[in-house]
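C-alpha coordinates please, single chain.
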Amino acid sequence: MSALLVNLAYIVAAVMFIFGLRMLGSPATARSGNALSSGGMLIAIVVTLLSKGIVEFHWIAVAAAAGALVGALASRLVAMTAMPEMVALFNGSGGIASLLVAWAALFGASPGVGGVTTFTAVTVFLSIMIGGVTFSGSLVAWAKLAEVMPSGAIVFVGQRVINAALLGGLVLGGVLFALLPAPDSPLFYAILGLAVLLGVMAVIPIGGADMPVVISLLNSYSGLAACAAGFAINNNILIVSGSLVGAAGIILTNIMCKAMNRSLTNVLFSGFGAVKTVTKVEGDVKPIVAEDAYLILEAASAVTFVPGYGMAVAQAQHVVRELGEILEANGCEVSYAIHPVAGRMPGHMNVLLAEANVPYDQLVESDDINPRMPNVDVAVVIGANDVVNPAARDDDASPIYGMPIVNVDHARTVFVLKRSMASGFAGVDNPLFFGTNTRMLFGDAKASISALISEFK
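Here you go.
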Protein backbone atom coordinates (compact mmCIF):
# COMPACT_ATOMS: atom_id res chain seq x y z
CA MET A 1 0.00 0.00 0.00
CA SER A 2 1.48 3.36 -1.05
CA ALA A 3 2.37 6.03 1.50
CA LEU A 4 -0.01 8.47 -0.23
CA LEU A 5 -2.96 6.10 0.17
CA VAL A 6 -2.05 5.39 3.79
CA ASN A 7 -1.85 9.07 4.68
CA LEU A 8 -5.11 9.77 2.84
CA ALA A 9 -6.84 7.06 4.89
CA TYR A 10 -5.33 8.51 8.05
CA ILE A 11 -6.71 11.94 7.17
CA VAL A 12 -10.17 10.45 6.67
CA ALA A 13 -9.89 8.68 10.04
CA ALA A 14 -8.71 11.88 11.76
CA VAL A 15 -11.65 13.84 10.33
CA MET A 16 -14.02 11.14 11.58
CA PHE A 17 -12.41 11.39 15.04
CA ILE A 18 -12.85 15.17 15.14
CA PHE A 19 -16.47 15.15 13.98
CA GLY A 20 -17.24 12.20 16.27
CA LEU A 21 -15.78 14.07 19.22
CA ARG A 22 -17.82 17.13 18.30
CA MET A 23 -21.01 15.05 18.21
CA LEU A 24 -20.28 13.68 21.69
CA GLY A 25 -20.97 17.18 23.02
CA SER A 26 -24.74 16.65 22.72
CA PRO A 27 -26.80 13.79 24.15
CA ALA A 28 -28.88 13.78 20.98
CA THR A 29 -25.89 12.98 18.74
CA ALA A 30 -23.60 11.16 21.19
CA ARG A 31 -24.36 7.66 19.91
CA SER A 32 -23.78 8.67 16.30
CA GLY A 33 -20.56 10.40 17.27
CA ASN A 34 -19.34 7.30 19.07
CA ALA A 35 -20.13 5.15 16.02
CA LEU A 36 -18.39 7.64 13.70
CA SER A 37 -15.25 7.68 15.82
CA SER A 38 -15.26 3.88 16.03
CA GLY A 39 -15.46 3.73 12.24
CA GLY A 40 -12.48 6.03 11.98
CA MET A 41 -10.48 3.83 14.33
CA LEU A 42 -11.40 0.74 12.29
CA ILE A 43 -10.08 2.42 9.14
CA ALA A 44 -6.88 3.44 10.94
CA ILE A 45 -6.25 -0.07 12.27
CA VAL A 46 -6.91 -1.84 8.94
CA VAL A 47 -4.73 0.58 6.97
CA THR A 48 -1.91 0.32 9.51
CA LEU A 49 -1.93 -3.48 9.39
CA LEU A 50 -1.91 -3.53 5.60
CA SER A 51 0.75 -0.83 5.24
CA LYS A 52 3.17 -2.56 7.61
CA GLY A 53 2.98 -5.87 5.76
CA ILE A 54 1.79 -7.82 8.79
CA VAL A 55 1.06 -11.37 7.71
CA GLU A 56 0.17 -13.09 11.00
CA PHE A 57 -3.43 -11.98 10.73
CA HIS A 58 -4.82 -15.05 12.46
CA TRP A 59 -3.44 -13.81 15.80
CA ILE A 60 -4.85 -10.37 15.14
CA ALA A 61 -8.23 -11.90 14.32
CA VAL A 62 -8.17 -13.92 17.55
CA ALA A 63 -7.34 -10.81 19.59
CA ALA A 64 -10.01 -8.76 17.80
CA ALA A 65 -12.63 -11.45 18.42
CA ALA A 66 -11.67 -11.69 22.08
CA GLY A 67 -11.83 -7.92 22.47
CA ALA A 68 -15.20 -7.75 20.72
CA LEU A 69 -16.56 -10.47 22.98
CA VAL A 70 -15.35 -8.72 26.13
CA GLY A 71 -16.76 -5.41 24.91
CA ALA A 72 -20.14 -6.91 24.02
CA LEU A 73 -20.43 -8.66 27.37
CA ALA A 74 -19.37 -5.54 29.25
CA SER A 75 -21.94 -3.39 27.46
CA ARG A 76 -24.69 -5.83 28.41
CA LEU A 77 -23.65 -7.04 31.84
CA VAL A 78 -21.94 -4.07 33.51
CA ALA A 79 -24.52 -2.06 35.44
CA MET A 80 -24.85 1.70 34.95
CA THR A 81 -23.72 2.11 38.56
CA ALA A 82 -20.41 0.49 37.60
CA MET A 83 -19.72 2.79 34.64
CA PRO A 84 -17.23 4.97 36.57
CA GLU A 85 -15.20 1.89 37.46
CA MET A 86 -15.40 0.75 33.83
CA VAL A 87 -14.14 4.12 32.60
CA ALA A 88 -11.25 3.93 35.07
CA LEU A 89 -10.32 0.50 33.69
CA PHE A 90 -10.57 1.84 30.12
CA ASN A 91 -8.13 4.61 30.99
CA GLY A 92 -5.76 2.09 32.54
CA SER A 93 -6.00 -0.14 29.46
CA GLY A 94 -5.07 2.79 27.24
CA GLY A 95 -2.09 3.59 29.44
CA ILE A 96 -0.69 0.05 29.49
CA ALA A 97 -1.29 -0.35 25.74
CA SER A 98 0.77 2.77 25.00
CA LEU A 99 3.48 1.59 27.38
CA LEU A 100 3.73 -1.77 25.59
CA VAL A 101 3.80 -0.14 22.15
CA ALA A 102 6.66 2.12 23.20
CA TRP A 103 8.49 -0.80 24.78
CA ALA A 104 8.13 -2.79 21.57
CA ALA A 105 9.55 0.16 19.61
CA LEU A 106 12.90 -0.41 21.34
CA PHE A 107 13.23 -3.95 20.02
CA GLY A 108 14.61 -4.69 16.58
CA ALA A 109 17.05 -1.80 16.68
CA SER A 110 20.19 -1.22 18.71
CA PRO A 111 21.72 2.20 19.49
CA GLY A 112 24.89 1.55 17.59
CA VAL A 113 23.42 0.33 14.29
CA GLY A 114 21.40 3.29 13.11
CA GLY A 115 18.63 2.22 15.44
CA VAL A 116 17.10 4.25 18.24
CA THR A 117 17.64 7.98 17.91
CA THR A 118 17.62 10.38 20.83
CA PHE A 119 14.20 11.68 19.76
CA THR A 120 12.76 8.17 19.68
CA ALA A 121 14.29 7.39 23.07
CA VAL A 122 12.69 10.51 24.57
CA THR A 123 9.26 9.66 23.15
CA VAL A 124 9.59 6.07 24.36
CA PHE A 125 10.46 7.33 27.83
CA LEU A 126 7.49 9.73 27.87
CA SER A 127 5.10 7.01 26.73
CA ILE A 128 6.36 4.57 29.34
CA MET A 129 6.31 7.15 32.12
CA ILE A 130 2.83 8.54 31.34
CA GLY A 131 1.47 5.11 30.44
CA GLY A 132 2.76 3.57 33.67
CA VAL A 133 1.34 6.39 35.79
CA THR A 134 -2.00 6.12 33.96
CA PHE A 135 -2.18 2.34 34.35
CA SER A 136 -1.47 2.10 38.08
CA GLY A 137 -3.31 5.32 38.89
CA SER A 138 -6.40 4.06 37.07
CA LEU A 139 -6.29 0.79 38.99
CA VAL A 140 -6.25 2.74 42.26
CA ALA A 141 -9.14 4.91 41.02
CA TRP A 142 -11.06 1.75 40.11
CA ALA A 143 -10.39 0.26 43.55
CA LYS A 144 -11.64 3.40 45.28
CA LEU A 145 -14.75 3.67 43.12
CA ALA A 146 -15.53 -0.02 43.59
CA GLU A 147 -14.76 0.38 47.31
CA VAL A 148 -12.24 -2.45 47.12
CA MET A 149 -10.02 -0.09 49.09
CA PRO A 150 -11.00 2.90 51.29
CA SER A 151 -12.47 5.65 49.13
CA GLY A 152 -11.15 8.46 51.31
CA ALA A 153 -7.81 10.23 51.03
CA ILE A 154 -4.83 8.14 52.19
CA VAL A 155 -2.16 10.52 53.46
CA PHE A 156 0.98 10.18 55.56
CA VAL A 157 3.90 12.31 56.69
CA GLY A 158 6.40 13.08 53.94
CA GLN A 159 4.07 11.96 51.15
CA ARG A 160 4.72 14.94 48.90
CA VAL A 161 8.46 14.63 49.42
CA ILE A 162 8.29 10.99 48.30
CA ASN A 163 6.20 11.91 45.26
CA ALA A 164 8.66 14.66 44.34
CA ALA A 165 11.55 12.20 44.73
CA LEU A 166 9.79 9.69 42.46
CA LEU A 167 9.20 12.34 39.82
CA GLY A 168 12.80 13.55 40.09
CA GLY A 169 14.06 9.99 39.77
CA LEU A 170 11.96 9.52 36.65
CA VAL A 171 13.31 12.69 35.04
CA LEU A 172 16.90 11.73 35.84
CA GLY A 173 16.30 8.21 34.56
CA GLY A 174 14.78 9.65 31.39
CA VAL A 175 17.88 11.75 30.69
CA LEU A 176 20.19 8.78 31.18
CA PHE A 177 17.91 6.55 29.12
CA ALA A 178 17.92 9.04 26.23
CA LEU A 179 21.73 8.84 26.14
CA LEU A 180 21.81 5.03 25.89
CA PRO A 181 18.40 3.44 25.26
CA ALA A 182 18.06 -0.31 25.67
CA PRO A 183 14.96 -2.44 26.32
CA ASP A 184 16.69 -4.84 28.70
CA SER A 185 18.84 -2.48 30.77
CA PRO A 186 18.32 -2.14 34.56
CA LEU A 187 17.70 1.57 33.99
CA PHE A 188 14.72 0.80 31.76
CA TYR A 189 13.12 -1.43 34.37
CA ALA A 190 13.82 1.17 37.05
CA ILE A 191 11.93 3.79 34.98
CA LEU A 192 9.08 1.35 34.48
CA GLY A 193 8.85 0.59 38.20
CA LEU A 194 9.07 4.26 39.23
CA ALA A 195 6.29 5.19 36.79
CA VAL A 196 3.95 2.52 38.13
CA LEU A 197 4.75 3.46 41.73
CA LEU A 198 4.21 7.18 41.03
CA GLY A 199 0.75 6.41 39.61
CA VAL A 200 -0.23 4.71 42.86
CA MET A 201 1.26 7.43 45.05
CA ALA A 202 -0.38 10.20 43.00
CA VAL A 203 -3.93 8.86 43.35
CA ILE A 204 -4.10 7.44 46.89
CA PRO A 205 -4.14 10.91 48.55
CA ILE A 206 -7.20 11.90 46.51
CA GLY A 207 -10.55 11.51 48.26
CA GLY A 208 -13.53 9.74 46.76
CA ALA A 209 -15.50 12.94 46.20
CA ASP A 210 -12.78 14.12 43.82
CA MET A 211 -12.82 10.97 41.68
CA PRO A 212 -14.63 12.65 38.73
CA VAL A 213 -11.67 15.02 38.40
CA VAL A 214 -9.20 12.14 38.63
CA ILE A 215 -11.00 10.11 35.97
CA SER A 216 -10.91 13.10 33.60
CA LEU A 217 -7.22 13.66 34.27
CA LEU A 218 -6.29 10.00 33.78
CA ASN A 219 -8.26 10.01 30.55
CA SER A 220 -6.08 12.87 29.37
CA TYR A 221 -2.94 11.01 30.48
CA SER A 222 -3.96 7.96 28.42
CA GLY A 223 -4.23 10.18 25.34
CA LEU A 224 -0.85 11.80 25.95
CA ALA A 225 0.73 8.37 26.39
CA ALA A 226 -0.76 7.26 23.07
CA CYS A 227 0.51 10.42 21.39
CA ALA A 228 4.04 9.80 22.67
CA ALA A 229 3.82 6.18 21.49
CA GLY A 230 2.79 7.47 18.07
CA PHE A 231 5.97 9.52 17.85
CA ALA A 232 7.98 6.52 19.02
CA ILE A 233 6.73 4.31 16.17
CA ASN A 234 6.25 7.18 13.69
CA ASN A 235 2.52 6.62 13.26
CA ASN A 236 0.61 9.76 12.33
CA ILE A 237 -2.90 8.62 13.22
CA LEU A 238 -1.81 7.51 16.68
CA ILE A 239 -0.30 10.95 17.22
CA VAL A 240 -3.52 12.66 16.09
CA SER A 241 -5.89 10.44 18.06
CA GLY A 242 -3.73 10.63 21.18
CA SER A 243 -3.56 14.41 20.92
CA LEU A 244 -7.36 14.63 20.60
CA VAL A 245 -7.93 12.45 23.66
CA GLY A 246 -5.29 14.31 25.63
CA ALA A 247 -6.68 17.74 24.76
CA ALA A 248 -10.30 16.70 25.36
CA GLY A 249 -9.32 15.19 28.71
CA ILE A 250 -7.54 18.36 29.81
CA ILE A 251 -10.55 20.49 28.83
CA LEU A 252 -12.89 18.18 30.72
CA THR A 253 -10.52 18.17 33.70
CA ASN A 254 -10.60 21.95 33.75
CA ILE A 255 -14.41 21.91 33.70
CA MET A 256 -14.44 19.38 36.54
CA CYS A 257 -11.95 21.48 38.52
CA LYS A 258 -14.23 24.50 38.29
CA ALA A 259 -17.18 22.37 39.35
CA MET A 260 -15.20 21.15 42.37
CA ASN A 261 -13.60 24.55 43.01
CA ARG A 262 -10.13 23.01 42.61
CA SER A 263 -7.20 24.43 40.69
CA LEU A 264 -5.68 22.44 37.85
CA THR A 265 -2.25 22.87 39.45
CA ASN A 266 -3.47 21.18 42.61
CA VAL A 267 -4.90 18.32 40.59
CA LEU A 268 -1.68 17.79 38.63
CA PHE A 269 0.40 17.64 41.79
CA SER A 270 -2.12 15.69 43.88
CA GLY A 271 -2.48 18.63 46.22
CA PHE A 272 -6.17 18.17 46.92
CA GLY A 273 -8.14 15.71 48.93
CA ALA A 274 -6.30 16.70 52.08
CA VAL A 275 -7.89 15.58 55.32
CA LYS A 276 -9.79 18.19 57.34
CA THR A 277 -11.69 17.97 60.56
CA VAL A 278 -15.23 16.92 59.72
CA THR A 279 -17.95 18.82 61.53
CA LYS A 280 -20.49 16.51 63.14
CA VAL A 281 -24.02 17.63 62.30
CA GLU A 282 -26.90 16.86 64.63
CA GLY A 283 -30.55 17.83 64.64
CA ASP A 284 -34.10 16.63 64.33
CA VAL A 285 -35.03 14.70 61.21
CA LYS A 286 -38.52 15.17 59.81
CA PRO A 287 -39.54 12.02 57.93
CA ILE A 288 -42.46 11.91 55.52
CA VAL A 289 -44.44 9.13 53.90
CA ALA A 290 -45.47 8.82 50.26
CA GLU A 291 -49.11 9.72 50.96
CA ASP A 292 -48.18 13.08 52.50
CA ALA A 293 -45.48 13.77 49.93
CA TYR A 294 -48.07 13.24 47.21
CA LEU A 295 -50.31 15.97 48.64
CA ILE A 296 -47.45 18.47 48.49
CA LEU A 297 -46.40 17.47 44.97
CA GLU A 298 -49.98 17.52 43.73
CA ALA A 299 -50.29 21.18 44.71
CA ALA A 300 -46.84 22.18 43.38
CA SER A 301 -46.45 24.34 40.28
CA ALA A 302 -42.65 23.94 39.95
CA VAL A 303 -40.69 20.78 40.82
CA THR A 304 -36.97 20.17 40.34
CA PHE A 305 -35.44 16.72 40.54
CA VAL A 306 -31.81 16.55 41.68
CA PRO A 307 -30.40 13.11 40.81
CA GLY A 308 -27.33 11.56 42.39
CA TYR A 309 -25.52 8.27 42.71
CA GLY A 310 -28.38 6.86 44.78
CA MET A 311 -30.65 7.10 41.73
CA ALA A 312 -28.13 5.05 39.77
CA VAL A 313 -27.93 2.42 42.51
CA ALA A 314 -31.71 2.09 42.66
CA GLN A 315 -32.06 2.24 38.85
CA ALA A 316 -34.81 4.78 39.46
CA GLN A 317 -34.33 6.94 36.36
CA HIS A 318 -37.30 5.44 34.49
CA VAL A 319 -39.81 5.94 37.31
CA VAL A 320 -38.41 9.44 37.88
CA ARG A 321 -39.17 10.26 34.26
CA GLU A 322 -42.66 8.77 34.66
CA LEU A 323 -43.33 10.88 37.75
CA GLY A 324 -42.08 13.94 35.88
CA GLU A 325 -44.54 13.30 33.06
CA ILE A 326 -47.40 12.90 35.56
CA LEU A 327 -46.48 16.19 37.21
CA GLU A 328 -46.37 17.94 33.84
CA ALA A 329 -49.80 16.57 32.99
CA ASN A 330 -50.93 18.05 36.30
CA GLY A 331 -49.80 21.52 35.16
CA CYS A 332 -46.44 21.52 36.93
CA GLU A 333 -43.18 22.83 35.50
CA VAL A 334 -40.58 20.05 35.78
CA SER A 335 -36.80 20.37 35.54
CA TYR A 336 -33.75 18.28 36.41
CA ALA A 337 -30.81 19.96 38.13
CA ILE A 338 -27.54 18.43 36.91
CA HIS A 339 -24.39 19.05 38.91
CA PRO A 340 -21.22 18.48 36.82
CA VAL A 341 -19.84 15.94 39.28
CA ALA A 342 -23.06 14.27 40.44
CA GLY A 343 -22.44 10.53 40.51
CA ARG A 344 -18.93 9.20 40.21
CA MET A 345 -17.86 10.26 36.76
CA PRO A 346 -18.42 13.26 34.48
CA GLY A 347 -21.84 13.14 32.83
CA HIS A 348 -23.06 10.21 34.93
CA MET A 349 -26.54 11.66 35.53
CA ASN A 350 -26.88 12.84 31.93
CA VAL A 351 -26.31 9.30 30.72
CA LEU A 352 -28.86 7.83 33.13
CA LEU A 353 -31.57 10.35 32.29
CA ALA A 354 -30.90 10.05 28.56
CA GLU A 355 -31.35 6.29 28.95
CA ALA A 356 -34.80 7.01 30.42
CA ASN A 357 -35.65 9.38 27.52
CA VAL A 358 -35.91 12.47 29.70
CA PRO A 359 -36.17 15.51 27.34
CA TYR A 360 -32.79 17.18 26.96
CA ASP A 361 -34.21 20.67 27.40
CA GLN A 362 -35.35 19.78 30.93
CA LEU A 363 -31.77 19.11 32.05
CA VAL A 364 -30.49 22.30 33.68
CA GLU A 365 -26.95 22.84 34.95
CA SER A 366 -26.53 23.86 38.56
CA ASP A 367 -25.32 27.38 37.73
CA ASP A 368 -28.52 28.00 35.78
CA ILE A 369 -30.95 26.34 38.21
CA ASN A 370 -29.65 28.02 41.38
CA PRO A 371 -31.11 31.50 40.63
CA ARG A 372 -34.48 29.83 40.04
CA MET A 373 -34.41 27.68 43.17
CA PRO A 374 -36.25 30.13 45.50
CA ASN A 375 -39.24 29.86 43.15
CA VAL A 376 -39.21 26.04 43.14
CA ASP A 377 -42.04 24.58 45.20
CA VAL A 378 -40.43 21.18 45.71
CA ALA A 379 -36.84 20.07 45.14
CA VAL A 380 -36.69 16.27 45.04
CA VAL A 381 -33.17 15.07 45.91
CA ILE A 382 -32.74 11.47 44.75
CA GLY A 383 -29.69 9.91 46.32
CA ALA A 384 -27.50 13.01 46.01
CA ASN A 385 -25.40 13.99 49.02
CA ASP A 386 -22.27 16.04 48.50
CA VAL A 387 -23.53 18.12 45.55
CA VAL A 388 -26.43 19.49 47.65
CA ASN A 389 -24.54 19.85 50.94
CA PRO A 390 -24.82 23.42 52.30
CA ALA A 391 -21.61 22.83 54.28
CA ALA A 392 -19.73 23.38 51.02
CA ARG A 393 -21.11 26.89 51.06
CA ASP A 394 -21.21 27.70 54.77
CA ASP A 395 -18.64 25.61 56.70
CA ASP A 396 -15.01 26.55 56.02
CA ALA A 397 -13.89 23.52 58.07
CA SER A 398 -15.61 21.09 55.72
CA PRO A 399 -13.48 19.04 53.29
CA ILE A 400 -15.82 20.11 50.46
CA TYR A 401 -15.88 23.81 51.42
CA GLY A 402 -15.93 26.02 48.36
CA MET A 403 -17.37 23.41 46.01
CA PRO A 404 -20.31 24.86 44.05
CA ILE A 405 -23.50 23.00 44.89
CA VAL A 406 -27.15 22.89 43.87
CA ASN A 407 -28.86 25.22 46.37
CA VAL A 408 -31.83 22.97 47.03
CA ASP A 409 -32.12 24.33 50.57
CA HIS A 410 -33.37 27.58 49.00
CA ALA A 411 -36.44 25.81 47.59
CA ARG A 412 -39.74 26.10 49.47
CA THR A 413 -39.77 22.38 50.30
CA VAL A 414 -37.08 19.72 49.92
CA PHE A 415 -37.74 15.99 49.68
CA VAL A 416 -34.62 13.90 50.26
CA LEU A 417 -34.92 10.28 49.12
CA LYS A 418 -32.42 8.10 50.96
CA ARG A 419 -32.18 4.64 52.45
CA SER A 420 -30.63 5.96 55.66
CA MET A 421 -28.88 8.96 57.19
CA ALA A 422 -25.48 7.77 55.96
CA SER A 423 -23.09 10.37 54.57
CA GLY A 424 -22.16 10.61 50.90
CA PHE A 425 -19.04 9.47 49.08
CA ALA A 426 -16.99 12.30 50.63
CA GLY A 427 -17.85 10.99 54.11
CA VAL A 428 -19.25 14.36 55.20
CA ASP A 429 -22.45 14.92 57.21
CA ASN A 430 -25.12 16.95 55.44
CA PRO A 431 -26.97 19.68 57.40
CA LEU A 432 -29.59 19.76 54.63
CA PHE A 433 -31.15 16.64 56.15
CA PHE A 434 -31.99 18.60 59.31
CA GLY A 435 -33.29 21.73 57.56
CA THR A 436 -36.62 23.25 58.57
CA ASN A 437 -37.96 22.86 55.02
CA THR A 438 -36.56 19.35 54.48
CA ARG A 439 -38.56 16.13 54.64
CA MET A 440 -36.84 12.74 54.52
CA LEU A 441 -38.54 10.05 52.44
CA PHE A 442 -36.67 6.96 53.57
CA GLY A 443 -36.40 3.79 51.51
CA ASP A 444 -35.27 2.57 48.12
CA ALA A 445 -35.52 5.47 45.67
CA LYS A 446 -37.26 3.43 42.99
CA ALA A 447 -39.83 2.09 45.47
CA SER A 448 -40.43 5.56 46.91
CA ILE A 449 -40.98 7.15 43.49
CA SER A 450 -43.21 4.25 42.46
CA ALA A 451 -45.29 4.83 45.59
CA LEU A 452 -45.74 8.49 44.64
CA ILE A 453 -46.79 7.46 41.12
CA SER A 454 -49.37 5.09 42.63
CA GLU A 455 -50.79 7.93 44.71
CA PHE A 456 -51.22 10.08 41.60
CA LYS A 457 -52.87 7.24 39.70
